Amino acid sequence: MGKNVIKFVCGECGYESGKWLGRCPACNSWNTLQEERIDNKPRITGELKGRAVALSHIENERVERFSTGIGELDRVLGGGIVPGSLILLGGDPGIGKSTLLLQVADHIAGKGEKVLYLSGEESFKQIRLRSLRLGINNENIYLLNEQNIDFLGDFVQKIKPRLVIIDSIQTVYSGNLSSIPGSVSQLKECTARITELAKASDISVFLVGHVTKEGAIAGPKILEHMVDVVVYFEGEKNFAFRLLRGIKNRFGATDELGILEMTGQGLLEVKDPSQYFLDTEAKNVSGTAVAVSFEGSRPFLIEMQALVASSLPPYVRRMAFGIEQNRLALLIAVLEKRRGILLTNCDVYLKVTGGLFLKDPAVDLAVIGAVFSSYKDKPLPSDMVFIGEVGLSGKIRQVPFIDARLKEAEKMGYKKAVIPAGLSFKPGFDPRMEIIQVGMLDEFIEVLMEGWG
Ligand code: TYD
Ligand code: MG
């Protein structure tokens, strides 16, 4: 018989230590080591259960996915839910995770399949209130208030659901361990148990996970490694729209972005995202430029707002909301060096509308356009979009999917586009917009200055 061992595990990164420490040596966070008791069970001997099979002998099975009923969620999942898969849905409290999953439950229940909804956070009454608000009243949705995961298998046997929702993974526990729900070993154990159950009975499972203030799903990264798909649900509380962002997907691409809107009747799909990120009121004011950003598999138009205000060194500020701070600093440096525009006596603020965070470098040109427009205090043409990456040398670099970006801009009624020089369009694509090609930052600034006469 092995003996029970006590160890200390960091709640942030999963680092293990034999003794308690005030600060985790791996991730440097304070006071995160928790005591965990490991029951060392002897290795089981007996009949061999696993098997090794030649790859070529495995039947070629097509993955049959089923829809969540919410197109934007299906998009992020790679086309729907794969049977037997574990999906982790992370997000801040109050962002709408329970609402989203109740809507998914309703869709699947509407198809005549059963859904088991384990709620460790809210009472039946609270969920009932939400369901009434959403107009959801399906007898195929079963609520469960058993937080001990050891019994989940029994309920699955009895109800035979197609989908199980665990809201949230931080509130369930297994009786095998003495540590509290939400501790690292409980999260690992429960997720492992749920995975076993899902794979054995081919049911799909959504796990809700809370996000810590640092923006990671509470508990170690290990949880993300254990599931098949990780989706983050994000948004600003004071904006109505919400973003679904794929972080990991064993069955599809991870760079997809789903956009939903929180309304009085729950979450609705946003079919035309461009409309959301354009501030139509702000036409003809200096400091705004429209970019065409590519997120996942589709382009959308989004407005950059810059404010350049005089300041006194050494207190000048550079603040970016929605792109990386360093990228703003870099673009300002390029503008200073390549064009001799000195912003050393200026604060520069940059904001992407709608609380989105953009990684697509193709928005560089719009950032520079917005900053320059604010610096000159002259508005850019309101029917113009800006597409291009800006290199350190001041070269305007080419970007992928130019055709799709221009089509989106055309669709939204824009008449002119500034794009990198030397781009060729796919045969058959003939933009109706006026296309202005710029090779270097200098040329770009000239184009803007000409417009101002
Ligand atoms: P909820 O799904 O409880 O969030 P989470 O599970 O992520 O903590 O949703 C919380 C918010 O959504 C709450 O503040 C109320 C709002 N809400 C709506 O605006 N419309 C609706 O139809 C519903 C059900 C909720
Ligand atoms: Mg909830």
Automatic annotation (TrEMBL):
The gene is radA. SMART domains: AAA. ATP binds at residues 91-98. The middle region has homology to RecA with ATPase motifs including the RadA KNRFG motif, while the C-terminus is homologous to Lon protease. DNA-dependent ATPase involved in processing of recombination intermediates, plays a role in repairing DNA breaks. Stimulates the branch migration of RecA-mediated strand transfer reactions, allowing the 3' invading strand to extend heteroduplex DNA faster. Binds ssDNA in the presence of ADP but not other nucleotides, has ATPase activity that is stimulated by ssDNA and various branched DNA structures, but inhibited by SSB. Does not have RecA's homology-searching function. Plays a role in repairing double-strand DNA breaks, probably involving stabilizing or processing branched DNA or blocked replication forks. This is DNA repair protein RadA. Residues 347-453 are annotated as: Lon-protease-like. The keyword Translocase does not apply. Belongs to the RecA family. RadA subfamily. A motif (RadA KNRFG motif) lies at residues 248-252. Keywords: ATP-binding, DNA damage, DNA repair, DNA-binding, Hydrolase, Metal-binding, Nucleotide-binding, Stress response, Zinc, Zinc-finger.
